[in-house]
Amino acid sequence: MRTSSVSRQTKETSISVELNLDGNGTSKISTGIGFFDHMLASFAKHGLFDLTIKATGDLHVDDHHLVEDMGIVLGEAFAKALGDKSKIERFGHALIPMDEALSTVAVDISGRGYAVFMAEFHYESIGSYSTRMTRHFVDSFARASGMNLNVRIEGEDDHHMVESMFKALGVAIWMATRKNEKRGIPSTKGTL
């Protein structure tokens, strides 16, 4: 069973994540940032994995520590659930529109965490969520999960841009983590 539980406690945040890669998109998420909760729920729904998140942080300062640490903990949960990464597709991609916005996400579960992120947001925040934190989340998630992520977002409405990106990330990861019994370890090296 491809599941994991990961917790992280610092002076700035307290985060626990439970992940089931073979779920159906059910989520229960509480971070204290309403828009971020909505994005993580979309991520799980379109990635078809079950996700439970309980997180608190120093939101009286801003959302930076919580969003960045969430990327780390969620990335660690994916890495743990994937184990040796055998019998997965490894690569995934998605092109997801939302009204005028379009997000393109490509994923390689290579064991080498790296992120390319291209987007220009128009406002500093959506509710209490800082748009600049989208880049930080993607980068932290990529490094902690050992995934190579390439993200490009176009659009005029920041809400649509960020939401289409989280949906695209979910779909691309679902594609890359799908089981394929013929694959073994999906690498000519014999390891990832």
UniProtKB/TrEMBL annotation:
UniProt xrefs under SUPFAM superfamilies: Ribosomal protein S5 domain 2-like
Subcellular location: Cytoplasm
GO CC annotations on file: cytoplasm
EC number: 4.2.1.19
Gene3D superfamilies: Imidazole glycerol phosphate dehydratase, domain 1
MF-aspect GO terms: imidazoleglycerol-phosphate dehydratase activity
A GO BP annotation: L-histidine biosynthetic process
HAMAP family xrefs: HisB
Family that this chain belongs to: Belongs to the imidazoleglycerol-phosphate dehydratase family.
Protein name, as recorded: Imidazoleglycerol-phosphate dehydratase
Protein's organism: Methanocella paludicola (strain DSM 17711 / JCM 13418 / NBRC 101707 / SANAE)
